[in-house]
Specification:
38% of the residues lie in helices and 12% in strands. It is an alpha/beta fold and 474 residues long. Strand 5, helix 7 and strand 6 form a beta-alpha-beta unit. It is globular, with a radius of gyration of 21 Å. The chain starts with 38 loop residues before the first helix and ends with a strand. Bound molecules: ligand F0G. The site of ligand F0G has 15 residues, from helix 4 and helix 5.
Length: 474
């Protein structure tokens, strides 16, 4: 089934009327039972978890919207691909198939398989990032930022201001602000900037897309200054789909053509394949230059594994190669992003404050507006995550002050501009009925929101604290 495309007029970007009713281009062959523990059990489980849902056993979660990472349902073709995995240590045919699929879909000549996205970041940053460096970009993801800060370098956020205003509806809220980028580069000097990073879609900023024009402009600027451009490609297919639907002049191109042009501007890309390649594990480090590939190869062998398997088994590489094709199919993308949009619109209709417009992979509740009686230092988004579990057995995730960690220089909390609870939609897993239930639970919470209390730490790990922190109610 082909997807209808809007006209190329800029004012039409929200008129994606083909979207909401686009059905899933698959049917369900196998199901996995889920169970809602009763309220008393949920209270006990959350207390034992230290009010941190990362510590809640998955079989005690009814609807799991913690992440879209590695939680998608593989297709029958991907499961069949597993049987064709070549587990040779060197020169595996599965590696060559993966390499060919990366060349075809992403257009990169060189590729190293890694066990997941952060491993690709680790290898690339081992070569490029040094003490005192600055990496400008659009809302770096937390593992990316952690890899930068681990090397005593700094991530500087140059996302457009609109990204930080939840109810502003513009088509490409994930864009890099060229003025901010220019200012950082002028102040820092190019010698301290190993690369500029564009994350597509912008996960930390609400799953919002970056326009093709913005990628072109950032690339032109990088060329002018002699800077490398790197793309964090975790959700590149969803980003390319938004470009096709919303960007003037792109409506008649295929998602794959758009994606390939996007990547053509990058010197390298890291990818968590657990998102848009719809595998449960896997990552990619893609490069254009042989020199960079040679430098990265040593670290890949050291941290991940030999060049032709890296962090993956042959069967994983097979499923990944198949997934790169499936994840860029347009009817699949229309159904997926349509589901997220329907869910988001239903929350807006019910008066729940969310980041607008709905992003590609998740809906983000604006916790500051939802819980106006709480101060940001009382972790309102984390408090909301706890209540969502208590009320409905649903697991979301905090993208707010806890996730932001402390400033490594000052040791102080650094409350981000947006304090969000993300409800991430796994690919090909839940139906609209599941999401309607989530909406109903949120409406109940909204109606008793004055009863929701803030939190404080009882244990705070030094970095990436949101995974292991423990809290109590104030
Ligand atoms: N970059 C982005 C934009 C991501 O969203 C993630 C992971 C990574 C890099 C790291 O990849 O997990 O494979 O090592 N995001 C997940 C999430 C964990 O829940 O958003 P990874």
């Amino acid at each position: 089934m082909s997807t209808a495309k809007p006209s190329d007029q800029p004012h039409d970007w929200q008129n994606t009327s083909s979207l909401p009713s686009h059905p899933e281009p698959y049917k369900i062959k196998m199901v996995e039972p889920i169970h809602l523990p009763d309220r008393a059990e949920r209270e006990l489980i959350l207390q034992e978890a230290g009010l941190n849902v990362f510590n809640v056993p998955a079989d005690r979660v009814f609807i799991d919207l913690l992440t879209d990472s590695g939680t998608g349902a593989m297709s029958e073709h991907q499961w069949a691909s597993l049987m064709e995995g070549d587990e040779s240590y060197a020169g595996s045919t599965s590696f060559h198939r993966l390499k060919a699929s990366v060349q075809e879909i992403m257009g990169f000549e060189y590729m190293l398989p890694t066990h997941q996205g952060r491993a690709a970041e680790n290898v690339l940053h081992s070569v490029l990032v040094h003490d005192g460096d600055i990496i400008p970009g659009n809302s770096h993801f937390d593992t990316t930022k952690a890899h930068i800060e681990f090397r005593h370098a700094h991530a500087v956020d140059c996302t457009v201001d609109e990204c930080f205003v939840p109810d502003v509806e513009i088509p490409f809220k994930g864009n890099v602000d060229l003025d901010k980028l220019r200012e950082v580069v002028d102040q820092t000097g190019v010698e301290k900037i190993p690369f500029v990073l564009i994350t597509v879609t912008n996960n930390s900023g609400g799953g919002q897309p970056v326009s093709l024009q913005n990628v072109r402009d950032v690339h032109a600027f990088c060329q002018e200054r002699g800077l490398r451009l790197v793309i964090d490609a975790a959700r590149f297919a969803e980003n390319a789909w938004f470009i096709q639907q919303r960007e003037p002049g792109q409506g008649d191109r295929t998602v794959r053509e758009i994606a390939k042009e996007m990547f053509s501007y990058a010197d390298a890309a890291t990818m968590s394949a657990k998102k848009d390649a719809i595998v449960n594990m896997g990552g990619l480090l893609c490069m254009r230059s042989e020199e960079l590939y040679t430098q990265c190869s040593s670290f890949n062998i050291l941290f991940e594994g030999y060049l032709t398997y890296g962090g993956l088994s042959g069967r994983d590489m097979e499923a990944l190669a198949t997934g790169l094709y499936e994840g860029t199919e347009e009817d699949y993308l229309a159904a997926r992003i349509g589901q997220v949009k329907r869910f988001g619109d239903s929350l807006t209709e019910a008066g729940i404050p969310i980041v607008r417009p709905p992003g590609g992979h998740a809906i983000y509740v604006d916790a500051k507006s939802f819980l106006p009686h709480l101060d940001q230092e009382q972790f309102p988004a984390q408090a909301l995550v706890c209540e969502l579990y208590l009320e409905g057995g649903i697991r979301g995730v905090e993208i707010g002050t806890v996730l932001a960690d402390r400033d490594p220089d000052t040791g102080k909390n650094r409350p981000p501009k947006l304090e969000l609870m993300r409800m991430t939609i796994p690919r090909r897993v839940y139906t609209d009925n599941h999401l309607q239930y989530v909406r109903d639970v949120l409406v109940t919470l909204r109606d008793r929101r004055e009863s929701i209390r803030g939190l404080k730490f009882t244990y705070e790990p030094p970095i990436l604290r949101h995974f292991r922190a423990r809290f109590e109610w104030e």
